[in-house]
Amino acid sequence: MEGAPTMSPKIALITGANSGIGFTIAQRLLNHSTDGFRVVLCCRNRKKASDARDTLLKEFPSGLIDIIIVDVGSVDSVFRSCKEIKKKYDRIDLLFCNAGIFPCAYLDWWTVARQAITDPKGLLIESTPLIQPVGATTSEGLGETFACNVFGHYIMIRQLEDVLASSDQSRIIWTSSRTAKRDDYNPSDYQCFRGPSPYESSKYVTDVIAIALNSRLNKRNIHSFTTHPGVVATNIVYDHLGWAMDKTMKAVLYTGRSLGIKEATITGWNGSYANYVVATEPIENLNKFCKYGSYAKPWGSIYCLEEAIICYDEKEANDLLRKLDDLLNEFRKKNKYGV
After folding, report:
1. What's the CATH architecture for 10-335?
2. For the chain, what is the radius of gyration of the CA atoms?
3. Are 69 and 49 contacting, i.e. CB atoms less than 8 angstroms apart?
4. pLDDT for 173-217, tens place per residue?
């Protein structure tokens, strides 16, 4: 008697997967017991991607793990990687738009001192003291933060749309930020490089795009969501202020969490929980008009909350999609990229 047919594993592409949130998304999917996943690590650096794959295979010896080299901040790299992806996979079930940058010029110690007195919680969970460089552009003439956090992923979605549509119910899951606010976004600066907060502005744009894409893609059974990881202890402090300040920051975050600051998820594993929930929860239980956030209880237990996107405007969202489409078509014509 023939055995029951085996289900092919779901294919999950994760950008920025060699470290941080992206790496722990891969861990969570490989650890998931119900569905099998083939995890595709989409990374800029081949050595770091290979090291991440080796680390994952030590933890999950039978794990299905592939590597695609892509720099989401480079239009040329994104187009080339999409061509490779379409050759290797006949469908994509999950696309995690996770890679991104948070450029930091310096830490404003005056703001740190003032917030420590007037708003200590805000000092822990907001990025106000981290001064971002303004006006940075890529070699292709795009706003640097916009290219890495927004446009590279938008190109991937458009180029891979047919492959996403080949899945029964594919999901696009953006890693946004809890600090993304409409106040930081200027529609006349949609590439997010003239204002004082390119990172927050770019993440608000990802929230808007994540929602707006549903009106276009749901008819093809492609569903788009946005998430945030809470406050994760990244390498920014270590890179700018050294080992001692990095350890101090983490100690303060753990103390804050024990006192009830739910935003302090601290680790990448904790921060990736909302992405995991959106990836594995039945689609009918999810709200595409909200953002899903990772939060922590004082003793460290992690949970997910559904949150409204403040000030979302459908007309503004559709205008933004048109601008992105026009920009995409410019690159297609200029460099003769195929659809």
Report:
1. 3-Layer(aba) Sandwich (3.40)
2. 20
3. yes
4. 999 999 888 888 888 888 987 778 899 999 999 999 999 999 999
- Residue 199 annotated to the active site: yes
| pTM exceeds 0.90 | yes
263, exposed or middle or buried, with CB in 10 Å at 0-12, 13-18, 19+? Answer: buried
State the catalytic residue, choosing from 89, 154, 185, 199: 199
- Rounded to whole angstroms, the Cα distance separating 141 from 144 reads 8
Quote the tokens at residue 330.
Answer: 């410019």
Sign of the four-CA dihedral 47, 50, 51, 52: positive
**What are the residue ranges spanned by the domains of the chain?**
10-335
Please provide the DSSP assignment of 94-110 as one string: EEEE--------EE-HH
**Token code pair at residue 56:** 């994952």
> Which residues make beta-bridge pairs with 130?
107
Q: What is the 3-state secondary structure (H, E, C) of 9-63?
A: CEEEEEECCCCHHHHHHHHHHHHCCCCCEEEEEEECCHHHHHHHHHHHHHHCCCC
- Token pair in block for residue 18: 């060699």
Helix (H) or strand (E) holding 68: strand 64-69
SS3 assignment for 274-302: HHHHHHHCCHHHCCCCEEEEEEECCCCCE
Q: What is the DSSP letter of 196?
A: S
